[in-house]
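dumping these here so i dont lose them again. two proteins, back to back, each one seq then structure tokens. dont judge the mess
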Amino acid sequence: MTSRFIDLSHTFADGMPGTSRMQPDGRWDEVTVSLKVARTREESARTLTGGAAFESTDVTFPTAIATYIDAPYCRYPQMRDIAGLALDDLILPGIVVDCRGTANRTAVAIDRLPAQSLAGYAVLFRFGWDAHWGTARYREHPHIGADIVDRLIAGGVKLAGFDTGNADAAGDTAYPVHSRLLARDIVIAENLAGLGALIGKAFRFFAVPIKAARATSMTVRAYAELL
């Protein structure tokens, strides 16, 4: 039986492709996931007396890794953090914009956007860039420009998602897309995968993180429910 659910997430794993952070000396360091066994089943069995045995896991990670969302607090300290996002902001009717063929480091043309109303939608941009996950080319991604941002804001979009690691142009340290969308309380989802399965289909989009107070971003298990 075919599932009505489509997984849109990269796998969260120890040592996975990470996120880059500029250090005070100008160097860029990549930070990734560290996932390890905190207690083995054998250690657990020696501690417990009832015959049960469990393995437990410890994990450390930057919250902007794997498939994740940015809350407005990521850019603006007075705005909502991850815990402040309502479920109604994260479970939305969705639409995929097919942007395949957009060249590296270029902005997608605004005529790719559909003419329909986008009010209240999660608008997900499919560049096909998930195919380059874990490669050097993944950082050379296309992006959206100011004209599309204008349309998303004017149209009342609630979430903008991308199958790239950044909504903004690679190397643009002004982050105009993040700055403008987050200022309007529009959540951003990045590192999505598998959006091709949703083109032309009606679906509901889910990107729900743990309810983490003072978190700027958070990894999610993003998925779609076909309607």
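---- next one ----
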Amino acid sequence: MGKRTHDGVSKRCDCGRRSWPKCVHPWHFRFYHGDREHRFSLDVIARIRGEDPPATLAEANAWRDRLRSEIRAGTLIDPHVPTKDPVAPLNLHLTFGDVCDQYLTRHVRNPLRRVKGKREMEILVAMLRRAEIPAAAGTTVRLEAKPMDAITRADVEAVRTWRRQEQAMGKSRRGSKGGEVGTNRLLSRLRHVFSWAIAEGHLIDTPFKRGPVAVVKMETSVEGARTRRLAPSIMMPDRTVQDGEEARLLKHAGSHLRALIIAALSTGARLGELLSLQWSQIRWDEYGQARWLLLPAAKTKTAEARVIPVGPKLRSLLALRRHAADGKVHAPDAYVFGNEAGERATSVRTAWKLACQRADIKDLHFHDLRREFASRLLESSADLHDVQMFLGHAAITTTSRYLQSTPVRLERALARMEKSARFKHGAGQPTRNTQRKGASPRPENARKTVN
């Protein structure tokens, strides 16, 4: 550990003294005043105050003179000495980066969280940390360097502007949400970081609200709900039937993709849930037929276990896939929708794109099959709570937003209304005498008999 200093500043590395101005190791500060030695890492002091740490000797000397003045004036807040002021908690000067470290460790990297969801959160948090926001004298600073309690609504809006500029320059991750939708996702994650920090006691308020009023608005107009459904079969003028999109999709899909399509339209399960399904998750009845799919919490998006009944079409499919190519029954740890050896398939993106092209189907996502299943459930007069249980939504409000009234349901509602109106206005309404049991209808030209 180096003992020689440049008048109060030094480095504790193995580099030579002449190499200090050029090496990357942090500068340290030492100052004797009032029979007390003050020793700090200038990197720590700078990070606590939301400033850039000194890199050159000149910058280190500037920090030295600044700290000496504060020590002599008695205004220096020693980061190593706990404050006795109850109004100023110890974590008052935590930077956004410090809070993000705790957020990732204690919230994001939950062992029960899905790998994909964890990765998406980590990417959004990393983007937030490197977001450039305005600082003093026309400069900018990364959001991670700013004290958490000093972030304002203007800083949040600066993050929005920064993200738009990044997208305009083409700096977007492949597969991520682009445009205003992607910006909304980033700001939503920032809002959740603040909410988590408040719950943990790091903060008492959030820049997203001023009292009960939300002051940071999301661009909700770009978050239009997707309503894509599979087109049904059509009777042509020459009395021939044109196949619907489901039939064409199954016709042009390979055997593996065809099985996944049938499973999605029979269960409403997500693609990831189907690809991770193992034979040990299937429960059979006394006749050896599949009856339930058990989705554990570790394999669902909401981290809650779900049980899905198996219908006739899916039951027949599972019976065909239960045996491997050698005729033996697949092992319990083999994947139901894997390859012939029971190994897991990671993606069907290429197969799906090719099948849609061959079937001449435009703008159809595999996730739309989930909506198709749920819509068919509603059209069969299923209860909305049953649809929620099938889809695995944590709240029924999500199911309500997820599904709009389908044309078939509207047609049936109109038919019920017209049927009720016909009876109300007398068309097909029984006469008064026929309403009594055993009474015969009265002729229209019958006259009243006066006794």
